[in-house]
Amino acid sequence: MTIERMGDSPRRREDARFVTGQGAYLDDLTFEGLAQAVLLRSPHAHALIKSIDTRAARAALGVLAVLTAADAETDGLKPLRPYAEANVQTGEPFAFAPQPLLAHDKTRFAGEPVVLVVAETHAQALDAAELVAVDYEPLPAVTSPEAARATDAPQLAAEIPRNTCLDWHTGDMAGAEAAFAAAAHVVSLRLDNHRIVMNPMEPRGGVGTFDPTTGRYTLHVSSQNIHINRNFVARSLGVEAKDVRFVAPDVGGGFGAKNFAYVEHALILWAARRVGRPVKWIASRSEVFLSDHAARDMQAEASLALDDEGRFLALRIASIANLGAYMAGAGGGVQTYQYIHLQGSVYRIPSIALHVVAVVTNTAPIGVTRGPGFAEAINIVERLIDAAARQTGFDRTDLRRRNMVPPEAMPMTNAFGFEVDSGHFAESLDHALARADWTGFDTRRRESERRGRLRGLGVAYHIKATGGPPDENVDVRFEADGTISLITGTQHIGQGHETTFPQILAHRLGVPNARIRLVQGDTDAIPFGGGHGSSRATYMGGTAIWRASDEIVTKGTALAADALEAAEADIRFEDGRFVVSGTDRAIGLIEVATLGRNQGRPLDTFHAWKREHMTFPNGAHVVEVEIDRDTGRVELARYTAVDDYGVLVNPMIATGQAHGAMAQGSGQALLEHATYDSASGQMIAGSFMDYALPRADDLPSFDLGFNPTRCTTNPLGVKGCGEAGAIAAFPAIANAILDALAPLGVKGFDGPATPARIWQAIQEAR
Q1: Which residues contact 728 (CB under 8 A, 6 or more apart)?
Q2: What three-state secondary structure class fits 746?
Q3: Tens-place pLDDT, residues 278-292
Q4: pTM exceeding the 0.90 threshold for the entire prediction
C-alpha cells in the first residue's frame, strides 16, 4: 500500500464515490414513515400579519400538522439569535431583533416563513399550504441602506432605531486628517460591492427525527458547521446541546450559505416531535434565492492620500453594510472584526480611519461567502490604487510594489494592531506579472484594436486571515482490523478532506493512506468542532492531527521499548516503524498499536487545541479582458495568479480550490447580482432566468502558480487556500475593464459588468 505524503498529489479518494452515484446527499437518505414539510412564505417584503386561518389546510388530505408562531410560542420555542451580539472590538451591544422561527406580528422580507405545513407527501403539503389564509396589511419596504436610514423610513423593529444595528468610528482619525491635509495627491471613489446569492449544487435542507424515549432530536442536515449550529438550534428548541444531534452526510457545496443556523433547522425538528415521525424539508431553488443567506452588499466612500513620491499616507473609508431583515449569523462580527482586520491589505499605510455602519432592510438576511469582510476591504484598496495611478501618472504596479511591506519587515503589524506572520508580497506580484507576460500586453492590445475590440489589463493583490472558530479537536483510533479512524470536528463540503487529512496523518505516522478512514459530520462522534468556514479546516484540523501524532509517537516509543527490550532513549521513529538505534531491530506502528490494545495501553489519542493566531494566504491576480464596444460584452481573455498558501498538503487539490474561487469571483464581477425592486421589496433576480452563474464558456483556462512562504503559526506551515480567488477576481476584473474603457473616458460603473451596464457606461462617457 502507498504512503502519500504532504506535497504529493494523489487523486481525490471521494471522487470514486461521487462519479459512480454512491454519494449520500439528503435526498438519497431513507427514513421509515417519512413525512414532508412545506413552508408558506410571506409574499410581502414588509407587512403586518392581522390573522392566519389554518382550518381548511388542517382538514386537507394527508395533512399531519399546520404550525404557526402561536403554536411555537405554546411549545416554548425561542427565536434565533445572531452569533455575535456585540462589537468584537469594543463590546458595545448591537441593536438587533432576534429572528422568529415563524413570523408572528409582521413579515420583514419576501420569503420569510409564516406557516409550516407537514403532510404525507410533498404534493399534499403544497396543496394544503395554498389553503392557508393569511390576512396581510402591506407596509412600505426599504431595500437599500440609504432608504433604511432616511428620516421617514419604515422601522423594521422597535429594537433597531433608524434601522441601524451599528454606527462605529474606529482607527486613527486625527492622523488620517493630518495626512490628507498634507498629501500631494488624494484620490476618492464610491464603490458598490453588490449582493450575490451562493446557489450551492445541493439546496439547504434537513430531515428531523425525535426520540420520545430519550428526548433527543436528530437532524440530518446539509450544513458546513454542525457543532456550532447545533448549539444555536438547541437554544431555540429550549433544550441542552446534548439533546440535539446533527449529522451532515455528503454536502453538495456551501460557499458560506450553509455556514450558520437557519430557522428551518429548528422548525423541522419541532415538527418531527409534533407529528411523531421523521420530517423532511429541502428548499426549492426559488427558496434558495428568497431565503438563503446572501452575501456582500456593502457600499463605501473611500479616499487614499499619497505623497509626491507615491507613498501611501492614509486611508479613509465610510462604509455601510446592508444586513438584510435580520442580523443573521455573524453579520455584525464580520463588520467589526473581519472587515477591519486587514484594512490596508499588504501595504504600509500609517493612518487608517473607518466609519462602519450596518443596517437592516426588507431583504433576505446577509450571511457570508468566500472572504467575508476581507473581500470588501481588498476591493476598496485595490480599486483605489488603480484610480490613484490614473490620476497621478504613477505606474500602478510600481505603486503597489513601492508600498508593500517587504519580507525583512515580517511579521508585520498593521494600523489596527493585527500581525501577519509571513509573505513575500512584491515577489509574488512580480512572479504573477512575469507569468502573465505583462510587458507583452501592448502587442495584444494592438491586435485587439485591429479586430475592433477594446483590451484591458488589471491586477489585484489579495490577503485574508483564515482560522474561523478558535477551537478544534481530532480523535485518532487504532482499530482491531489494522485500520485507523481519524475523527475530526472539521467538515468536508467538497474540498477534498477525505484525501488531504489522511495525507497529513500518513505523512506523520508513515502508514499507508488506505489504512486511514476519515470520520466527520456527526456531533455525536466528537465533542466539538468548528466546521468548515474561513478556510480553517487544514490549519485547525491539520494542527490537531499533527499534535496528536506527536502524542501517538511518544506512547508508541514506550511500548516499542518494552517490546524490543531497549531503552526509550534508544528508540527512534521513522517511516512508520520504531527502530533501535544502531541495529536492525524494529517494530511497526500498527503492531505496536495491537500490543498497546492488548496491554490496556492503547495508542488511541484525542487532541484538542485553541488557536491564538490566524494564517494569511495572499497573492497577486492578473486579468486581461476584451470588450465589444458595440454590445458591451466583456470576455475574460486571460487569468493568471501566483498565490502563497504556505506548505501545500496536496497541490492538485489546492489548485482546484483556487480555481473554484476564481470562478466564483469572476461570477460576481461579470454576471451575478441579487436585485430587489426598490418600491415593493420583491426580488427580481429570483431564478436562473434572471440570475446568471458563470459557466465553462464564461471562463478562460486559469494559469495558477505558487510562491509559498511557510506559515509560522502552525506546525504544518499551511495557509487556508479556499477563498483567494473570490477576493481577488472582483477588483482585478474591474480594474481590467476600466483599463480597457479608459480611452473612451469611462471612469467607473456599478454592479457586475454585464453587457448592458458596460454599454451604458460607454454611452454616458460619449
Answers
A1: 378, 460, 461, 462, 619, 620, 621, 641, 662, 665
A2: coil
A3: 999 999 999 999 999
A4: yes
